[in-house]
Amino acid sequence: MGYFLQQLINGLTLGMIYGLIALGYTMVYGIIGMINFAHGEIYMIGAFLAVIGFTVLGLLGISYVPVALLIVLFTAMLFTAVYGWTLERVAYRPLRSAPRLAPLISAIGASIFFQNYVQLAQGARVKPIAPVISGGYTVFEEGGFTVQLSYVQILIWLLTLALMVAFALLIQRTSLGRAQRACEQDRAMASLVGIDVNRTISLTFVIGATLAAVAGVMVTLYYGVVDFYIGFLAGIKAFTAAVLGGIGSLPGAMLGGLILGLVEAFWSAYFSVEYKDVAAFTILVLVLIFKPSGLLGRPEVEKV
Amino acid sequence: MSALLTVEHLSMRFGGLLAIDDLCFAADERRITAIIGPNGAGKTTVFNCLTGFYRPDVGRLTLHRPQGPLYLERLDGYRIAQAGVARTFQNIRLFPAMSVLENLIVAQHNVLMRASGYSVAGLFGAARFRRAEAEAIEFARSWLERVDLVERADSPAGSLPYGAQRRLEIARAMCTRPRLLCLDEPAAGLNPRESAELTALLRSVRDREGIGVLLIEHDMSVVMGISDHIIVLDYGKKIADGTPEQVRHDPNVIRAYLGEAEHEALPAEIAADLRRDDRPT
Amino acid sequence: MVANPNTAPRIDIAALLKDAALTAAVAFALALPLIGFRTVDDPAGLGIETRFDWVATGVGAVFLGRLLLSWLFALRGQRPAVGSGWLAHARAQLDPHMKWIALAGMLFAFLLPFLPFSSRYTIDIATTVLIYVMLGWGLNVVVGLAGLLDLGYVAFYAVGAYSYALLAVTFNLSFWECLPLAGLFAAFFGILLGFPVLRLRGDYLAIVTLGFGEMIRIILLNWVPVTRGPDGVSGIPRPSFFGLPFTANPPEGVTAFHEFFGIAYAGSHRVTFLYFLILLLALITNLFTLRIRRLPVGRAWEALREDEIACRALGINPTNTKLTAFAIGAMFGGFAGAFFATRQGFISPESFTFIESATILAIVVLGGMGSQIGVVIAAVLLILLPELGRELAEFRMLLFGAAMVLIMAWRPRGLLAHREPSMRLHSRNHRGES
């Protein structure tokens, strides 16, 4: 029971991180109908910025956690946003009217570029940081097994929920959200009624990147280690989460992330750690075959 | 004259919208049957059910063949096509990068596939396959002559002008050697001269090939000129069914096209013209 | 902006400066955190090194570069149109002579080992290039002809390599016995994966195949009793020349290649033999592809790529047709894998990562999808250039990624995108052609 509960907590935490990354996929897919292949690398860059940020702050002697955390979050989001913007500008915008495969190839190229750029700039070794937030609540003890809910986990939960709410408001209440939804429906029409389509698409990439940056910071806090290769797997899994929830659906992305996180945690705990990624891909294939519109997505009617 | 296709109690729902409501009609061999109706009346949906792109909720769609009836509502789209129902699309769907000739050869895929021994014999250049291929090219050439595209046979289909693309799409559908040809707005976007040519082509298909033609069309001059039989849909329901003459004077039809009551006195020719003027582009 | 050809274009220096400054500002924001600060390992945890001089140099270079570029564009009066220009022109000029160019290329390939400048090293590199050419041609069936985006092609390469390695090591089967088996296994995996997923839309298919590639790699890593896990399979038998091994001292009762032909033993015999082997395999792949493109199934692949809905309306079974493309592409991947295993003598999951799939895909797409010669050119570029620039080895993948982005922006249809119809009604110079 205790073991189960601990896995539940861990799985939910992991799921929230996947969910945050998945939001970026689902938004970009919604608006330009393409997989942002380099999104995982954006998340990896966010994580690296967190490592650098915490290390620099530590050297500067700023160790009061809330202040350090806020500064790191803010700078990571800001700089990652620039990466997201550049990615769209360089790898996607010139190919807006190109054949469908072209932007995908250029995005794969961008992804390879980012990975190697970070590897060259920061070195290939795994980067560990000293724990920034330690400790937690003991939920309960049972036969010598303690179920822990760490402060980092609480932080991740709260931050994710807050971002979700803010995000939902942004999409539903602001003109940017309206412009986004309009572009999703019909890009040509949206530009005819005066929506700056380029700007809206850029902003979508920027927002996706900032959410990925938050996920990157959280992962750095949670695991304490980062390397330049983490973006690839996290990217595929977050995409799986987005598909599972129904691509284009924002609550779906979060739900998909949570389910995936839980499956991974329980699979590792009860079956085998080695094959946890295989489990995630199997889910992806099964969902695509049996419910391609995902859990919360709208079924697509084929236009003939 | 026997029924080639019978549609019985066809219904199709999209969410809350009842796109087709208990529709029954028949289309005959050697006759041109037109389905007309205002925008959103469910015409294309009927086609999509017939050709297997949608699964109807209720209804029986029967293709009558010498070897026995075939129920289309449970078949995959490609099987329906194999059974002899060919179609064209409202927004032309050619293989734009492939040449005009290749488009017509792809339409004869199943014949050629068998002749090539499912590619094995073809890989070794079997005589049987070479013969079948020569026949297929000859058949394609005969259709290119009928739609006046022989000169352009080796150009990419996507480079043809609009009207030629429409003709090519019909020729391609005919190259599947169908029993029933379904045309979704073949005259859309054509100029009057091209429309006249289209009319002649459809007549020749009816009379020379002797197959049934099912037609969705907005252009009333085309519809009234060539149809043997017209079915009028409005909001997914059939509101009239008969010869052009009967439909033209049907009060239900006039009301559907022009709105309620006050226009009831208008003669049908004017009604049809009004309809054409506000046709969507 | 429409340029008037009669007046020299006026150049708005202020706008150019502003544009360059903005670009430099973005470059600054990109470079500052990741290049400006470098994390270094420190006994006490992580330390930081600053490299602001690098950032300043980079930003300065970006500013000047951008200024120069936009000034050049302004001088020409307009930005160059994407996909036009000298390359397309050259292609059109060369097109009637393609057959001769291909023959000349083939002749060169056959003579390569005997040319004066050839060394063991050149032949080795040429062999690597040819492996990628073959993989590119194999994947071209799937991506170029059938239009199915396969991001996990390396999985079939891996299946072929492991099939050969394990069969040869476990059951002592020879290369020639294993080669067809390796192809069959890979094709079988292709069908196994393809059957459930081929009805998916393009991008979904891409991700699922990507996932499949990773799954195969994870299984190879972890299924230790069969695959020997991360240690890989070693001692894979090398191929023999129709039963004559390439060894200096063959075991009792076996005649070695050099003994049979009465020549002195040389290590280069095997290298040369391997080169001709892959050349042969690649040419078979090419001939097969060229031939099948003119068969109904090949045209159906292309038709599916162009419009799946129209295909269904013409009575083509989309799933089966895609499946054949997938299986045939996988089969060639399997053959190439078997060759790879016998050439290396050792394989491990390391060799079958996503980056391999990406490289092969890049070769197909950069070359111009569906273009057989394009694949050769792209493979030579992508494999050879990094080899030539050995000093730049560190930057190899960085440049590779950047090249993918830039070439796509420059020519979204690939370097040599051009389609020749699979059959003609009229002869080539018919006037009806436009």
What does this structure look like?
The complex is a heterotrimer of chains A (304), B (281) and C (434). Chain A is mostly helical and 304 residues long. Chain A has one domain: ABC transporter involved in vitamin B12 uptake, BtuC. Chain A contains 11 helices and 4 strands. Chain A has a two-stranded antiparallel sheet with strand order 1-4. Chain A has a two-stranded antiparallel sheet with strand order 2-3. Chain A starts with a helix and ends in a 14-residue tail after the last helix. The model of chain A has no long low-confidence stretch (mean pLDDT 86). By secondary structure, chain B is of the alpha/beta class. Chain B folds into 2 domains: 1-84 and 180-281, P-loop containing nucleotide triphosphate hydrolases (Rossmann fold), CATH 3.40.50; 95-177, no CATH class. Chain B has helices at residues 43-50, 77-82, 100-106, 109-115, 120-123, 127-146, 162-175, 192-209, 220-226, 244-248, 251-258, 268-277, and strands spanning 3-14, 17-28, 32-36, 58-65, 68-71, 85-87, 180-184, 212-216, 229-234, 237-242. In chain B, helix 3 runs parallel beside helix 7 and helix 6 crosses helix 7 (162-175). Residues 261-265 and 277-281 of chain B have low confidence and may be disordered. Chain C has 434 residues and is mainly α. Chain C folds into 2 domains: 13-76; 97-410, Orthogonal Bundle (ABC transporter involved in vitamin B12 uptake, BtuC). Chain C is 66% helix and 4% strand. A two-stranded antiparallel ribbon of chain C has the order 1-2. A two-stranded antiparallel ribbon of chain C has the order 3-4. The two termini of chain C are 30 Å apart.
